[in-house]
Amino acid sequence: MSRRRGPSVRAARAADAGHRHGPRARRRRRDRGGAAGRARLSPHGRHALEQHREHGGNGENLQLLDLRQERVQPRRPWLRRGRIHLVHDREPDRRRADHRGPLHARAALHPEGRVPVRIGARCVHPALAILELGSIARGVITSDAAVKRAPVTLLWSRPVSSGKHLVAFAGEVAEVEESLRAAQQVAGDALIDALYLPYADAQLWPLLSGDGDRPAPIDAVGVVETDTVCAAVRAADAAAKTAPVTLLDLRLAVGIGGKAFFTLTGELPDVEAAVDAARGAVAPARILGIEIVPAPHDDLRDRLLR
After folding, report:
1. What angle (nearest 5°) sits at the alpha carbon of residue 139, between those of residues 135 and 192?
2. 77 CB contacts (<8 Å, ≥6 apart)?
3. Which residues are CB-neighbours of 189 under 8 A, at least 6 positions away?
4. What is the CA radius of gyration of the chain?
5. CATH number, domain at 149?
6. Which residues span the domain enclosing 243?
7. Between 141 and 14, the higher pLDDT residue
8. What percent helix, strand, coil does the chain show, rounded to 5?
9. Least packed by Cβ within 10 Å: which of 26, 67, 234, 256?
10. pLDDT of residue 305
11. Residues 224 and 190 both lie in one domain
């Protein structure tokens, strides 16, 4: 008993395949079987770069291209010069154009927790440690113990005024912390003060190396004086991280009786906020003086820039 075959179901044509009453395309040798009379579809309805859109600028809604999704269509193999030749055509997947989703720009780098370190071009190490000793001889062996314990860079190992010895080294956070513990054990009772900054502010590095560029504009000026070098560096780091101020100078113990001080400039509210942060960063006994000059004289401005 023969089974009667029903009418074949034909797939709906794409919108760009042409009208069904239009001229029939001539079937070629390499066309797929069963596709006679169907117009060949281009991979895209139209060229992706022909449509012009205004540039949206940086941030959201950047310029996008509508590209139709495609899939691989294997064709039937045929015999060609004694070999089987297989061709894969890429044809449209007959889907709608992709939705123009907003393309968000990369989040800005903020120091408020997302990126806690502001590293400048001159900074090569994130962490900083300083030891201040009352014995020069003990300071030498303390420097040796620090650099032998972990791979850190020795910045200072020098005597300063009033017979003290400064040891400073920098490196990665874990290495500096490990070297600092070893150095404190060797320093013993000769240790006067110690400082550890896992993420030192970028303005400290050029001032510590002595090649800082002082800016021309000077607004209000703040001066913080301490009795140790470690206290001054800690206070300067807190001031620079609290308000948008510029550190002008940082003097450490040499020629000033072992004391230290730094000056900063900026708008008066910012200078006041930075000075308050510097005061709270160190012990009250270490602070020798804090002064603010709201509008310095022109002669004083010139002196501060030298």
Report:
1. 60
2. 84, 85, 86
3. none
4. 36
5. 3.30.70.1710
6. 206-306
7. 141
8. 25, 25, 50
9. 26
10. 65
11. no
